[in-house]
């Protein structure tokens, strides 16, 4: 609080420097926050598109697999599922958006041709193939959604911390610094006034003493006459 | 580093993904979800080879609070939920409300 600082000129200068620095930091952070929110809006649009694709793809995939189950039986579908040899893999690279590292996910072996699936051509039916196709497509959308949603989560975290910093500067640090500055300025002014008053007092006392000395000298001179 | 996709859910939910080649999966039957889903999710979260977790939106309600918060906030691996009604799953909507101050996903309803 304001009473904790010593009212010296040196402290005043230090506080003025800190105010300047904090204000500059506040402006920069504010710009960063606004920039991040703009970037976030772009990603949000993208995310909403991906989300709707995702639910469409999921519905299609579910319908296809239900059909396969109904026609071929649950056991056949599970058997085919257990026979898969190729597995989709993802590799993550990173991209930098205004200091936020967001992932870029690349996938391989999601889409497979019939002979790559490994459950054989004779043992299964077209319906299982269709279901597998639909799920492969769904996986691709899921990978895209994962990329976009991770980016969103990371950016939201960054926006939150930046916002907190801006608010801390604006509502806590800067008001406190201003308060300290004012306190020191007032204290210094008061000290100055005290000093002037003291000087005046001393002057007055000196003049009084001189007058007294003069009066005494005069009186002595009179008595000597 | 190459990672895999993991699916957690009822056997009906995971079969389709296995058909597409996903080999990391946790089967939890519907009637045992309250007891076993937490452990399944925790096991998958700790697996470093997993980059994406796929779950059904409804299954999230079977999770205990702590695990749910962990999986929703997790970035590596990231959770993608299916079957949600369009609005961003995984607690994203709440996070947006908190960070930006406005509910940006309202138009989805």
Automatic annotation (TrEMBL), chain A:
Topology class, membrane: Peripheral membrane protein
Residue ranges, compositional bias (Acidic residues): 208-217
Any one Gene Ontology molecular-function term assigned to this protein's record: proton-transporting ATPase activity, rotational mechanism
Coiled coil start-end: 44-71
Location of this chain's protein in the cell: Cell membrane
Keyword Iron-sulfur attached: no
UniProt keyword annotation of DNA-binding present: no
Domain of life according to the entry: Archaea
Main location: membrane
A single GO BP: proton motive force-driven plasma membrane ATP synthesis
InterPro entries from the UniProt entry: V_ATPase_D (IPR002699)
Keyword vocabulary terms for this entry: ATP synthesis, Cell membrane, Coiled coil, Hydrogen ion transport, Ion transport, Membrane, Transport
GO cellular component: plasma membrane
Annotated stretches, region: Disordered: 205-225
Regions crossing the membrane: none
Gene3D superfamilies: 1.10.287.3240
Any Pfam family: ATP-synt_D
Subunit architecture: Has multiple subunits with at least A(3), B(3), C, D, E, F, H, I and proteolipid K(x).
PANTHER family in the cross-refs: V-TYPE ATP SYNTHASE SUBUNIT D (PTHR11671)
Family of this protein: Belongs to the V-ATPase D subunit family.
Functional description taken from the UniProt entry: Component of the A-type ATP synthase that produces ATP from ADP in the presence of a proton gradient across the membrane.
Name recorded for this polypeptide: A-type ATP synthase subunit D
Organism: Halopenitus persicus
Lineage: Archaea, Methanobacteriati, Methanobacteriota, Stenosarchaea group, Halobacteria
UniProtKB/TrEMBL annotation, chain B:
Annotated membrane topology: Peripheral membrane protein
Gene behind the chain: atpF
Record keywords, A-Z: ATP synthesis, Cell membrane, Hydrogen ion transport, Ion transport, Membrane, Transport
Species name: Halopenitus persicus
UniProt-listed NCBIfam families: PRK02228.1 (NF002577)
Assembly and interaction partners: Has multiple subunits with at least A(3), B(3), C, D, E, F, H, I and proteolipid K(x).
Family that this chain belongs to: Belongs to the V-ATPase F subunit family.
GO terms for cellular component: plasma membrane
Main location per the UniProt record: membrane
Biological role stated in the UniProt entry: Component of the A-type ATP synthase that produces ATP from ADP in the presence of a proton gradient across the membrane.
A GO term for molecular function: ATP binding
Identification of the protein by name: A-type ATP synthase subunit F
InterPro entries: ATPase_V1-cplx_f_g_su, ATPase_V1-cplx_fsu_bac/arc, ATPase_V1_fsu_sf
UniProt GO BP: proton motive force-driven plasma membrane ATP synthesis
First and last residue of the signal peptide: none
Cell compartments where the protein resides: Cell membrane
Entry annotated with the keyword DNA-binding: no
Matching Gene3D superfamilies: ATPase, V1 complex, subunit F (3.40.50.10580)
